[in-house]
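Quick one, tokens below:
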């Protein structure tokens, strides 16, 4: 199997309301839109990433896909080069994070937003993990992965 794209599809009350939030605060652009569906792609000149939103209650969908997302455990992780700069950019749009910028011992600097559908958006920057958190062997593997991701 050769993958061409990978994106999450979230069932929501109003795809256009969610669309506007991602466009305004995170710089996504609309790749495709209908009155019941919106497919967004990340901005920038590098590799593009997508997310889609579909209106709830569509008769043509399988029954299990007709109700909007109402949970608390969906996290959309967005990796950035610099989490502090990303936070400044988000704040410039008038949005404050739900969870402030913080460094985690497992090797992540991040802050969290909550989109209008209730999805947690975790803006993350890999950083060096605290060796005491995982132990030296796992910390070395994580550090190697961070270095590999930066090319």
């Amino acid at each position: 199997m050769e993958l061409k794209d990978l994106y999450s599809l979230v069932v929501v009350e109003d795809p256009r309301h969610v669309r506007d939030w991602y466009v305004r605060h995170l710089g996504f652009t609309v790749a495709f839109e209908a009155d019941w569906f919106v497919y967004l792609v990340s901005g920038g000149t590098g590799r593009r990433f997508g997310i889609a939103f579909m209106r709830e209650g569509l008769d043509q969908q399988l029954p299990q896909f007709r109700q909007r997302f109402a949970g608390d455990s969906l996290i959309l992780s967005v990796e950035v080069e610099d989490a502090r700069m990303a936070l400044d950019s988000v704040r410039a749009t008038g949005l404050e994070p739900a969870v402030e910028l913080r460094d985690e011992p497992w090797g992540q600097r991040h802050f969290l937003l909550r989109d209008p559908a209730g999805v947690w958006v975790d803006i993350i920057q890999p950083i060096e993990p605290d060796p005491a958190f995982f132990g030296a062997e796992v910390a070395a593997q994580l550090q190697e992965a961070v270095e590999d991701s930066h090319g």
